[in-house]
Amino acid sequence: MEKLAIKVKNLTKSFGHFKAVDNISFEVKEGEIFGFLGANGAGKSTAMRMLCGLSTPSSGTAEVAGFDVRKKPEKVKQRIGYMSQRFSLYEDLTVRENITLYGGIYGLTKAKIEEETKRMTTQLKMEDLLDHLVMDIPLGWKQKLAFSVALIHHPSVVFLDEPTGGVDPKTRRQFWELIYEAAHQGTTIFVTTHYMDEASYCDRISMMVDGEIKALDTPKALKKRMGVETMDEVFRMLARKAKRGDD
Amino acid sequence: MNEIKAFIRKELFHILRDRRTLLIVILLPIVQVLLFGFAISVEVQHMRIAMVGKEFADDQSLFEKLAQDIDATDACDVTAYYTTVEEAIDAMQRGEIDAAIRNGSPAIPINPQSTWQAAGQGWQILTDATNPTTGTNLGYLLQGIISQRMMPNETTTHRASVSPNSHLLFNPQLISAYNFVPGVMGLVFIMIGALVTSVSIVREKEIGTMELLLVSPVKPWIIILSKMLPYFIICSVDFIALLIVSKTILHVPIAGSLSAIIVMSILYIILALVIGLVISNKTKTQFQAMMISILGLMLPVIILSGLIFPIANMPTVLQYVTHVIPTKWYIDGLRKLMIQGLGWASVWHDIAILCAMITFFSILAFKTFKNRL
Amino acid sequence: MNTFLYLLQKEFIQIRRNSFMRRMIIMYPLLVTLVFPWATSMDLVDCGVVIVDHDHSQLSSRLINEIDALPLFHVTSTTDSYTIGMNDISSHDATAIVEIPHGFSDSISVGGAQVYIASNAVDGLQGSLAMNYLGQVTTQFGQEIGHDIGMNTTTNQSEVAIKYLFNGTLNYRHFMIPGLIVFALIALTAMLPALNIVSEKEKGTIEQMNVTPIHKYQFILAKLIPYWIIGLIAVTICIVLSGAVYGYLPKGSYASLYLLVFLFILTMSGIGLMLSNKSNTMQEAVFVMFFLMMIFSLMSGLFTPVQSMDSWAKWIADINPPRYFVDGMRAIYIKGSSFAQLGTEYIALTISSILFGALAVYTYKKQN
After folding, report:
1. Less Cβ around it within 10 Å: N or C end of chain C?
2. ipTM of the modeled complex
3. Superfamily of structural domain B47-150
């Protein structure tokens, strides 16, 4: 039996009467690229925030990298990486300083941090930008850097919250190459996106509508089940039933 | 015209949705004026007086009577009795008493190591002059009380004298609120006005939405105006509330021309908003805008506007500096209008300066804004 | 521990890169020691007096000259109409009016001479000071004349001497400098932290921190320490400058002064960060901080005495941490009070520093 990286059962988050996430259950296998789709306001960010230990579930359980997010959120945080939709590196620090900071936070030794810095900059071809302030480098580079920094401690699961928002198609493709590479090395990828073409890059995807998971399968199987050609159509068919509007 | 309306509606909606900020902006000034209107006072009050050397007094009953005289005044309470001056000085260093009265009897033991030197016979007042104003005032006050008690009965003796017949004008009960309410209003308006305008504009710059607005076909000045108008309304609401609060709760008189008060305040609020606009044009981040608005305005306004410290007391150079502080002119005018009960004629000078300042800062705002586009 | 040092390093780099903040840290001590002390005086200086002389006698002009010769007063004009005199008061050309009635010089010798004194009491303190001083001057004038004409041989000047302790030269600057240092510290160590965490919230970087396994207290401590250092540097600049420029140094011990400063900085930075944790936007944080700064500075005795406040206001002052610091700073600076003598101040600030330090950690939520 394959090992599970994420195990979610009946997870719910309510704000007052409003159920942002309504009783969802799913499992993600180790090394899988798991796409988490849904319209704005469908509740995918809230669900992801619970899995990262940023938000406490109202009910239900979730186990990430072998630890319960409710009971041991800090243990979970040791083993996960996270990159949010809003750019989250420090703009007033240089590339090197950001890498050093996060390396230090995850308890890497000085030598190890230096090694990672070198590896990362070679991989991203950013050697020349190493001592530039992050605010001065182009957005595409920033996103790729943020992704690499989220992986600095070799987490077993990495959460990506709309990582390619606002980036040009070329950079998006480069970004997905990075994701494949990380997955190849055994890292589980949990990614939210609203680019439907990206959805087909995932091993499996789930569709969230109004706080619930309405569909969960491989992109191919989903298209087949719905009898449509593209992921876009799959999405539209499911989203049509949504009661919550965009907000 | 329609686009202006649309923009204003957008801004108002923005502000109304952020309830917390709205509440803060409307309520804070009222709380501030109430709080400080009551609290800020420079009258000599509740002074703690210690009596020293009762055991050694030649006339114990006189000593007692004096203590009673002092205790009977509004300004002073006798809170302690000490045997030696050293004890009293120690209490002063601890901040427990404000002054001590020493019976001049030579019998009072004096520690030879003490830096304190007894000066001659008779009664002596020792005041804590850390704050020179309180120290001297208290000294004179106690001197008067003691002299009264010691006054030789000379009613029969014929003496040449001039007696002053003294009056305090405008504020005979020396109510500090009269002086401070216009000041606190001046402080609050400029801080809130400059702060909200500058921060709200810079915030849009920081988030990037300002660029979006500026590339739209709408003229920049319409955007800016629509950002300022809601805050102008908020400040005006504050002004009306403050006027009512000071009249009804603090009982600050509005003795002079109400129309002049309103016109002056409107001008002053506009000025504050325009200054905020200039700050927003000159800064790139919310942090900078806030630092300039709060730190750059707050202390200079508190200290150099005549709010607490009289301008006449300042060195000439600083007196010139105070001329550029808008709050100075507002406070000056408001005090004349509210408390001295004067009319339009007395404040045209202040109003003219406020208008000149508005013109100056508007031109500056216009120029700096152009440069940024 | 290692993690903590990386966090601390990050905070220092960010402050160092913020040229604006660097300038504030230097500018504020300069302003509060070199500029503002000159402006803060409540004493009566060069007060304008308008004279309404109905007597036009030798004695009345002698009184006018005497008033004009005093350093405190200058006669702005002499007129014989009260209405004109009042105009000068209204236009703020003069603070006080002295009216010498007709028949003044004749009635002195019979002990019945009166002088009408009125002063503008919109500013209550200035008004009453002017009134009292002028009253004293005229009373003395009467006695002087009595002496001259040989009537008052015995003096009824009672032998009550006033001795001003601690600030014998009655230097208002000496009173205000420790107070203004307090204001600079409030601005630097409460205001700046108040914007810190909330700005990370707005930028989104705080999320990234919250998904890492760092401990809350490490994160907060790394944020606080730079402000402690900033505060200590600012105080040192203030002390050195006022020593160099005015030759004015604290009378008490530096150890007790710095201990008090440190406790105060702990308190202020704790309050600042707590506010920052609780705010959603920088705008909100800055408004509340502005309000707090007003309370800190206006209800602490910094500008006006706590003794003069109403009892309820005094109660607020009693729970206002800067109140203890203002008292303590002035006591150490001016009175040379010792550590033992300032027990209340040290205890109050120790409690507040622990309380707000703990609250700063407690209110920081990695999870919601």
Report:
1. N
2. 0.81
3. Periplasmic binding protein-like II (3.40.190.10)
